[in-house]
Design brief:
The chain has 4 domains: about 160 residues; about 110 residues, Vaccinia Virus protein VP39 (Rossmann fold, 3-Layer(aba) Sandwich); about 40 residues, no CATH class; about 55 residues, no CATH class. Helix content is about 50%, strand content about 10%. It is built from 21 helices and 7 strands. The chain is globular, with a radius of gyration of 27 Å.
């Protein structure tokens, strides 16, 4: 099954969730179950050997963890005799057995499911009578490494993340940066070092202080691997949002990448990688967020450590980057009273709203020529920029703008002057 078809097939689980879950909540079930099924398949071949090794090492009074990691051949393991297929044999105890199975994973994997708050979803699915059906659906999806490579699995998971981000419009920026944007950033980051990065055995480190779902780190790793398959990129990151943090670690884990250096927490107020240095750093920091609630901690580091800390060059205003900043204040000048009231009441204003308001405010200005290239002229464009019979009056039934004179007409593309 191709990558797009596989991701669509997995997302079809949403048909079971419809009605009991909002669309924006589908990912809270589908993403962790996808991770669980992939890990389940990856560990299948070594499960019996791991269980036998655990028994031997515990009988000898030894900590079994390093031995189990070696036996599994992975960066994780599971010590339960259960797997998703075996869970299907006891429908009456599906919830209890699923929790026990998850709890038997190594600590790094348990951290992922805890950050997903997967136990909450198990409870909700059980109450809705959907837990067995959803688990059965995933148990029948073949995600074994011999059927789906790490690269393919990574592509599938990224597509699921993208779908989740699209449905979670209110927080899409926190979940997902478009991959084409990341590829451009990564190319710019590495462009000066392309020659050095092709040397045999080269090792570099990269850091993303606002890692999100890990896209930047993963794409950087893929880019370096394409330049030099023998190169090694050590990835470091920190993420504040628990769900994004879980997705980041899960995405890297199912691609076969290490997750030991992915830290949970606020980079500014609780640096989880204190004192570490990196060869590269890139980030898509949150937009529209002030740092007032962590101001005291940041100012303390600034005042006490100066250039020995992170903020030696100085601090911006608390409002920088938020909707209370100077730039945002200028943008608000074009908003209506209703929009301002909504904003003050906790609402948000999109870039499209601001752009539309700016265009509307400037539409009646004299001495301005607007040039636009559009596939077809739209009513709103005519209303805002067209030549009205009576320019002193607003557009209306008796004062409609005249059609624009065309500059040129190419197949599928029309150029028009808006006088």
């Amino acid at each position: 099954m191709s990558d797009p078809n596989l991701s669509s097939f997995i997302w079809s689980v949403a048909d079971l969730l419809r009605g009991d879950y909002k669309q924006s909540e589908y990912g809270k079930v589908i993403l962790p179950f996808t991770v669980l099924r992939r890990l389940d398949c990856v560990l299948e071949a070594t499960k019996e050997a791991v269980l036998a090794e655990k028994e031997i090492r515990e009988a000898a009074g030894l900590n079994p963890e390093p031995f189990l990691l070696r036996k599994s051949g992975q960066l994780f393991y599971n010590t339960s005799p259960l797997d998703l297929k075996k869970l299907m044999g006891d429908q009456d105890h599906i919830g209890e057995n699923l929790r026990a199975y998850m709890q038997a994973f190594s600590p790094a994997v348990r951290d992922i499911f805890e950050s997903f708050e997967f136990h909450t979803q198990i409870d909700k699915l059980a109450k809705s009578g959907l837990l067995y059906l959803v688990t059965e659906k995933f148990a029948n999806i073949d995600l074994h490494p011999d059927a789906v490579s790490n690269a393919q699995m990574g592509a599938v998971f990224e597509e699921l993340i993208r779908k989740f981000a699209e449905l979670s419009n209110e927080t899409a920026g926190e979940h997902f940066t478009p991959r084409e944007v990341i590829r451009l950033m990564v190319n710019l980051l590495f462009i000066e070092d392309d020659q050095a990065l092709t040397k045999p055995g080269v090792v570099r480190s990269i850091y993303d202080p606002t890692a999100g779902t890990g896209g930047m780190l993963s794409v950087a790793g893929e880019h370096l691997a394409s330049l030099n398959p023998n190169a090694r990129l050590v990835m470091y990151g920190q993420e504040l949002n628990p769900e994004s943090y879980a997705i980041c670690k899960a995405d890297m884990l199912i691609k076969g990448q290490g997750i030991a250096n992915i830290i949970f927490g606020n980079t500014l107020s609780a640096d989880g990688l204190l004192g570490k240095l990196f060869d590269y750093m890139l980030s898509n920091p949150p937009f529209g967020v002030e740092w007032k609630k962590i101001e005291a901690i940041i100012r303390k580091e600034f005042e006490q450590m100066g250039y020995n800390g992170r903020f030696g060059p100085g601090l911006p205003r608390v409002s920088d980057g938020s909707q209370t900043g100077e730039a945002a204040a200028k943008l608000k000048a074009v908003l209506s009273q209703e929009e301002l009231a909504e904003l003050n009441d906790g609402g948000e204003v999109s870039a499209e709203d601001i752009l539309a308001a700016q265009m509307a405010a400037r539409a009646s200005d004299a001495g301005i020529t607007y040039v636009a290239f559009t596939a077809t002229p739209k009513n709103k464009t005519l209303e805002l920029f067209g030549t009205r019979p009576d320019p002193a009056q607003p557009a209306g039934p008796g004062n409609l703008p005249a059609p624009f004179p065309r500059l040129f007409d190419a197949p599928g593309h029309r150029g028009e002057v808006h006088p």
